[in-house]
Design a protein that fits this description.
The chain contains nine helices and 14 strands. The chain is α/β, with parallel strands linked by helices and 350 residues long.
């Protein structure tokens, strides 16, 4: 069969599993899917298009003969093995933060800046999940009227912190409903596995995602700021972010305030979004129609609603943006990049 040999690195993880599902649904011509993970997972099997595929241990020579490698196994793994994949002729699409702000590495959302793929030197970075859905929704507006300011508050699902965080939410919820006091829930992961203290996520909202950095913004907040500037190729847009973890299993939600350079009516914004690639407009307050995380799970699109003018700023507007963080925020955007590389003839079959 003619097609690409595609490797999935981190095949047993939450995102890796979704990458396999997205490849099964993809238009990308695929001859073979190779599943790679740690030695601990080697020998297990996963079905790909109904066929059992044995998971192999990740080593440098795993990429011999591979055309496209999708990485989602942590930044350290990407830094170690992505260059090895490129040496052996593969094009890497990396879902970690390892290369996002590296100058020569394109940071790509296909609906927004697919032309950046022409500059790739073997590695392409997938943006942060929260950045991706915001870029999909704001790009049509930016093209039409320019953007001066973005203020975003996120309501992020625990799946963004991994499978163990999802287990923690489930365990804490059941325990609390069973009468366990909140100071006996014994959180081990959230808000951030690498920080000193942990707090319950069940029936809670934690205004910390990742550790705190410069100016008391978390790394997650800085990611959204810096990635927005890189993707839109405009560091003059004023961007501020507050990222919050909420007790939702999957589906990130965002309240986004923007100021445009030119004035638009709400109707014009709705028309722009209704015709934009990857966007579904759900906005009818009279019928209580607006995007919801629960409804977005399992879908590839970004959903936008609650579009309204600011009451005090002439060119200010508010939007509510929702997407499945494991799909459009990670696995689907990665596979979309691979599809776009194929469409633009920027990757070849060995």
């Amino acid at each position: 069969m003619t097609g690409y040999k595609v490797a999935v690195v981190g095949a047993t993880g939450a995102v890796g599993t979704k990458m396999i599902e997205m490849l099964e649904q993809s238009t990308l011509p695929i001859a073979e899917v190779k599943l790679l993970a740690s030695a601990r997972s080697a020998g297990q099997t996963r079905k790909v298009n109904g066929v059992e595929v044995v998971i192999e241990e990740l080593v440098p020579d795993s990429f011999t003969g591979v055309d496209i490698a999708l990485f989602s196994a942590g930044g350290g793994i990407s830094k170690q093995f992505a260059p090895e994949a490129v040496k052996r002729g593969a094009v890497v699409v990396d879902n970690t933060s390892a290369f996002r702000m590296t100058d020569e590495v394109p940071l790509v959302v296909p609906e927004v800046n697919r032309e950046a793929l022409k500059r790739h030197k073997g590695i392409i970075a997938n943006p942060n999940c929260s950045t991706i859905q915001m870029m999909v929704a704001l790009e049509p507006i930016r093209k039409a009227a320019g953007l001066k300011r973005i203020i975003v508050s996120t309501y992020q699902a625990v799946s963004g912190a991994g499978a163990k965080a999802m287990e923690e939410l489930k365990r804490e919820t059941l325990a609390y409903l069973d009468g366990t006091p909140k100071d006996q829930l014994n959180p081990e992961i959230l808000p951030c596995g690498g920080d000193k203290k942990h707090y319950p996520i069940a029936f809670n909202a934690l205004p910390q995602i990742d550790v705190f950095a410069d100016e008391d913004y978390t790394y997650e907040e800085w990611k959204m700021i810096n990635e927005t500037h890189k993707i839109m190729e405009d560091d003059q847009i004023n961007v501020a972010a507050t990222c919050v973890r909420v007790p939702v299993f999957s589906g990130h939600s965002e309240s986004v305030y923007i100021e445009t350079e030119q004035e638009l009516t709400v109707a014009e914004i709705k028309d722009l979004l209704a015709g934009a690639p990857g966007v579904v407009l759900e906005d009818d307050p009279s019928q209580q129609i607006y995007p919801q995380a629960l409804n977005a799970v399992g879908k590839k699109e970004t959903f936008v609603g609650r579009i309204r003018r600011d009451l005090h700023v002439r060119n200010g507007y508010h939007l509510w943006i929702v997407s499945d963080n494991l799909l459009k925020g990670a696995a689907w955007n990665s596979v979309q990049i691979a599809e776009t590389l194929h469409e633009m003839q920027l990757v070849g079959v060995k």
